Amino acid sequence: IEAPLLDGSRFSLADMRGKVVVVNVWATWCGPCRAEMPALEAFYQAHRDQGLVVLAISADDRSDIDQVRAAMHDFTYPAAMAQDSKISGYGRLWRVPLTFVIDRDGVLRRDGFKAAPTIDAAALDQDVLPLLQP
User: Fold this and answer.
1) Omega into 32 within 30° of 0, i.e. cis?
2) Which of 8, 9, 11, 42 is the most exposed place for a label (fewest CB within 10 A)?
3) What does the pLDDT look like over 63-87, one tens digit per residue?
4) DSSP classification of residue 86
């Protein structure tokens, strides 16, 4: 994953080696996506000092960037637009929400297509928390 972020910086999954990365593919028009974002934020705030990175990738059209920015206003984790990103190795991102988890060694541990379609606090605790342990 290579992505220009909404704040003007860049994200590179290759640069995240040694961190646990949660990639959440979402859209402003997706109710279940919007419902899981507060849990992602709370988990990020609680564990970012342990090496957790959360990246939101919006499946919205590039023309809807203002709505994406507005939706991300209350969240501190970074976001990017899928249309502007280089995403390979995850399959065709044709549905939302999708959440992938990549461990500190760069190994995909939660495949968004094979896991439950949404993620919540319990799933984050189960799927991500063990990967954060030293």
Assistant:
1) no
2) 8
3) 999 999 999 999 999 999 999 999 8
4) B
